[in-house]
Structure formats: C-alpha cells, structure tokens
TrEMBL record:
UniProt source species: Pseudidiomarina planktonica
HAMAP family, alphabetized: TMP_kinase
Family from the record: Belongs to the thiamine-monophosphate kinase family.
Positions with a binding annotation for substrate: 54, 262, 319
Domain PurM-like N-terminal: 28-137
Top-level taxon of origin: Bacteria
Protein's UniProt name: Thiamine-monophosphate kinase
Enzymatic reactions: thiamine phosphate + ATP = thiamine diphosphate + ADP
Keyword tags: ATP-binding, Kinase, Magnesium, Metal-binding, Nucleotide-binding, Thiamine biosynthesis, Transferase
Length: 325
C-alpha cells in the first residue's frame, strides 16, 4: 500500500469506522475485528457499481457514496437483518479530492443514519469502480429467505415502483418530465431508501422477501423459482407515483413499474393467517405496503390481470448484465 493510499484512507474513510462499540478494530489494519451479538446470525451482501454500466459521469459523487451503501443495505433489509458493518473497495482513475470529499460525505450520511460502520476495504487505481460488502445481524433462525413462500400467500410491495426507471429514461431523453417531478424521481434513482425497518418488522411474518433492484417481474421471479410457486398479480393495485402517471400512458407506466429496476422497495409474501400480524406490526410506521396479488401453484408462472383481463407482460422483464442485446 502506497503512502498516498494511506493518506487517502485516513483523510476520507477512517472516521466512518468509529461509530459502533462492537467494532474492536476498524479501518487501518490488515483485517477488521468485530464482535457479533450472541445467538445471532451474520448476513453478508456484496454489490459493485461500475462507471459506464451503473452510472455515468454526470452522477454526483455524493449520490454514489449513498447508493453503493444503500443497495447493500437493501439486500440486508430483504432478509430481515439489522445493518452493522461495511467494507469498501474503491478503484479510482485519479486522486480527485473534491470528488472524494463528496463521495465520503454521501457514504457517511447513510452509514450514520442506519448505524453501521465502515470497517475496512481496499483502494486501487484504475477505471472507476465501487464495491461494498455489508454485514448485518439477526437472531438465529429468523432470517427471511426467498424459499419460504407457499401457494395462497399474498404478494406485497413496500411502495411505488418505476420512478428510478423514469428518472433514467428522462436523463437519456427518452421521456420528458415536468419540472415539478424531476427532483423527486432523480432522488429515487440516486438516493434510494433501503427499507431496513420494514425488513426487521417482517421477521416472523413474511414467508419470503426480496428487494426490487432489477425490476419487479425479474425479482419476484426469484422468489417463485426458489419457492416453486407462481403468482397472479392484479395490476390495478400496483402502486404508481403521480410522476409516473402524469408522464406516461397508464399501460406504459405499468411497464416501467414491472420492468425497471433501482427502486429498492421490498417485494414480500405473507400467509393469509399472518395478514393481521402485518397490519399490527406496521400500524405505527410510515410504511404502508400494498397487496398486489397472490401466489399460485403454477411454478414460476406469473399471470398479469388488468381490469380482470389477462395482460401481456413486457418483453424485457428485468436487468441482466449478460443478456444478449
């Protein structure tokens, strides 16, 4: 490790590791040392964001600092984990102090809000790339998996879908947004909110869960495959933002809600006998999940209904890095 690399870590990232008492040794040594809770299980998630693939040169550095943490915390939320520690591997084309200051500020803000600490990582030189590994904790045996759903369970989403996709389309000049919608949808794209409190609240209630990162149809499909079930979705119940409704024709808005990613809402399933538990658990929170359908016994089949009639799914059902063009 070069002296310049040591200085970079000390200047921008060392202070992010001093926020939790369970960090015995954080940034600056060969390994971090943490002290997990007794009778708990660790849940670990890793995500990478690459310039030119996940973001362009116009994306604010502060947004990148926020989002690279948020996407990992969203994975933890989907499994009911409480965030604890992050590791960051960052590859930089050059030492840009202004960019680093803003990036570290975005990372600090989200780490502080969710009470997690940066405990280590790596810095290298090369094309801009960001990788975070997040670790969370939950009492042993309560983690929510994709494989627990059963036919008859109800399907919920935690909030409106499609806004991040709308923001991306607007930035690519594919749609025209009204000025009063621009800031909100840009924030949905660049500063997503991981549903951590909801994920923790779903312990013992949800039979399966996943975060919506690649599009609802694609991500729900992972639950259906793991649980060997199908789904029937009532599209009239799909939560859509005012921005989406006022910008697009209704059926086009549904395409965005079903297929565009980066919303980082939770999609989860709840057995019929636990629906009352769900309402009780969330009664005093700001989160109001919406029931959009029910699981069926038709393995991996998704039936879409609009006004009670079958509706054709979008041709592209979600983001895939290796899908042929």
């Amino acid at each position: 490790m070069s002296r310049g690399e040591f200085n970079l870590i000390d200047a921008y990232f060392s202070k992010l590791g001093s926020t939790r008492r369970d960090v015995v040794l954080g940034v600056g040594d060969d390994c971090a040392i943490v002290q997990p809770l007794a009778n708990s299980e660790l849940m670990v998630a890793t995500d990478t964001m690459v310039a030119g693939v996940h973001f362009d040169e116009n994306t604010p550095a502060r947004a990148l600092g926020h989002k690279i943490a948020a996407v990992n915390l969203s994975d933890l939320a989907a499994m009911g984990a409480e965030p604890a520690w992050l590791s960051l591997a960052i590859t930089l084309p050059e030492m840009d102090t202004d960019w680093l200051h803003e990036f570290a500020a975005g990372l600090h803000e989200i780490c502080s809000y969710y009470g997690c600490a940066l405990i280590g990582g790596d810095t290298t030189r090369g094309p801009l790339s960001l990788t975070v590994t997040a670790q969370g904790q939950a009492p042993a045996g309560v983690g929510i998996r994709r494989s627990g759903a059963k036919a008859g369970d109800w399907v919920y989403v935690s909030g409106a879908l499609g806004d991040a996709g709308l923001a991306l389309a607007a930035s690519q000049n594919k749609v025209t947004l009204a000025a009063h919608h621009q800031q909100r949808v840009q924030e949905r794209l660049h500063f997503p909110t991981p549903q951590v409190a909801l994920g923790i609240g779903l312990r013992g209630i949800a039979s399966a869960a996943i975060d919506v990162s690649d599009g609802l149809l694609a991500d729900l499909g992972h639950i259906l495959k793991a649980s060997k079930v199908g789904a029937r979705l009532e599209l009239n119940e799909m939560p859509l933002s005012l921005a989406l409704i006022e910008t697009l024709e209704y059926e086009q808005a549904l395409h965005y809600a079903l297929s565009s990613g980066d919303d980082y809402e939770l999609c989860f399933t709840v057995p019929d006998e636990r629906r009352g538990m769900l309402e009780t658990a969330l009664a005093h929170t700001a989160v109001k999940p919406v029931c959009i359908g029910r699981l069926t016994s038709q393995t991996e089949q998704i039936q879409l209904l609009l006004d009670g009639e079958p509706w054709q799914a979008p041709a592209q059902s979600g983001f895939d890095h290796f899908k042929a063009d």
